[in-house]
Amino acid sequence: MIKRLFSTLVCGLVLGITTVAAQAVITFKHTEHNFGKFKESKEQTFTFKFKNTGDKPLVIEQAVASCGCTIPTYTQAPIAPGKSGEIKVVYNGKGKSAGEFKKVITVRSNASNELVRLYIMGDMEAANP
Fold first, then answer.
1. How many CB atoms lie within 10 A of CB 24?
2. Over the stretch 36-89, which tens digit does the pLDDT of each residue have?
């Protein structure tokens, strides 16, 4: 009786540990992008590509930019293990101060690394009047 109870507990513990260990992992190819010099009148776009290197489906819960001039859109469907997704970022500096900038996009997901920050930067030149 005690031997059977002990075996049941050990099996339950091992199963619980492997269940906890199974998670999605979001792995980005790049977490920064520099647009370089560009004119204020031209929107800039970059797509951050990522892969689910974990063993459970990955779900992006949100991608939030640090200002309204930066708009992220992202893969909405769950990403299976080994598959890829993307976060497209559009920077519109029209009406903003010219010069160098750096913006952050905060990505939240169900991955073991649930919070990832992406950065875009550049040097925007004022449009000619």
1. 22
2. 999 999 999 999 999 999 999 999 999 999 999 999 999 999 999 999 999 999
Count Cα atoms within 13 angstroms, Cβ side, for 53. Answer: 8
Q: Which residues contact 85 (CB under 8 A, 6 or more apart)?
A: 49, 50, 51, 52, 58, 60, 74, 75, 79
Integer Cα distance of 11 and 5 in angstroms: 10
CATH class held by domain 23-125: mainly beta
Please give the model's pTM, rounded to 2 decimal places: 0.81
* Pairing relationship of beta strands 115-125 and 32-39 according to DSSP bridges: parallel
Please report, for the chain, the start and end positions of each structural domain, with discontinuous segments joined by +.
23-125
